[in-house]
Amino acid sequence: MQKQQAQTHKKTLLVFNCHEAWVYQLRVLGYNLDIITGLEGRYKENWDEQMRPVPADSRLVSLSQAHSTKIPYYCIIAYNITDLLDVKHLSGPRLIVIHSTLERRVVEEKSNIAPEKMRAALHKYLQLIGGHAVAVSALKGKSWGITDDIVPFGVDADDYLPYSGEKCSGLRICNFVENRWKIFLWDFYETAFNGIPVQLVGHDPNIPEAKAAQSWEQLKKILQSHRFYIHTADQRYEDGYNMATLEAMAAGLPVLGNRHFNSPVEHGVSGFLSDDAGELAKYARMLLADRDLAVSMGQEARKAVIERFSMDKLKKAFLQSIETARVKYQSPVDTIPASQQS
Known about the structure:
Number of domains: 2
Structural class: alpha/beta
Strand order of the largest sheet: 3-2-1-4-5-6
CATH class of the largest domain: Alpha Beta
CATH architecture of the largest domain: 3-Layer(aba) Sandwich
Shape: globular
Number of strands: 11
Radius of gyration: 21 Å
Order of helices and strands: HEHEEHEHEHHEHEHEHEHEEHHHH
Strand content: 5-15%
Number of helices: 14
């Protein structure tokens, strides 16, 4: 009974669901979570439990349920202006989290809107509603003109199984490759790893050999068993890592990829980086032939991710972002002109 009462009195965040792996991180904040699902344009209508279990102390709600709740939301966490417009009649501080570069969005969505107009629209709307923006990396923040609050991903290395690397195969995790070919340098990736065994894990309907993990527990076993991980990305559009890369490092896999200015991989220490496809293939074969080398490099990768991307760092920084949003907040009814509230 005491536990139930304590949970009832915890503050609650309202969170749009865009990326289960990222939303799952928010469990460390110490708040209850109302997670909005059932939104249009998402590949799964509800929470994808193949990616992550539903976080503890959370509930899945529809947008209409969020509007009808009696809960005073401590902060509303969104990812774009559309999300913010969806909750314009709800009371509560607004925090928008930038997960993508503006340039990537233009390419991926085949948008005809000039990037500077998109950037200006975001800043104008945040000013109107007293909202705050935070970016998950400096690259993504700079793209949108958000440079004062950067909160990188967090990874708990203790979540993952002891590395074995017994499978002579590389691993790559990527969803919807067809829409992200240019962003993730897929031509370079296919050239470099042609003839080298690589398992592709993800939701990729047009790649028959790609299969999504059935659960996070299965994904952990996949990470545990493979020899190395692969991440390639065009630095004009994307970081030299993503959450899957950091998960792989936390699980003890060395990482192979192209050279990228913000890659967390130290060449020759925690993995190998090269813009030469033939050279990258040579490194891949080296790791396939030498499991002990993969083990030692993977240990360095794990150390690096614990140092740079700990959950403690995420928690401290994101809690501060929420408090900044609360300071900036003004009632949307008072700050948005009536012509923009319809």
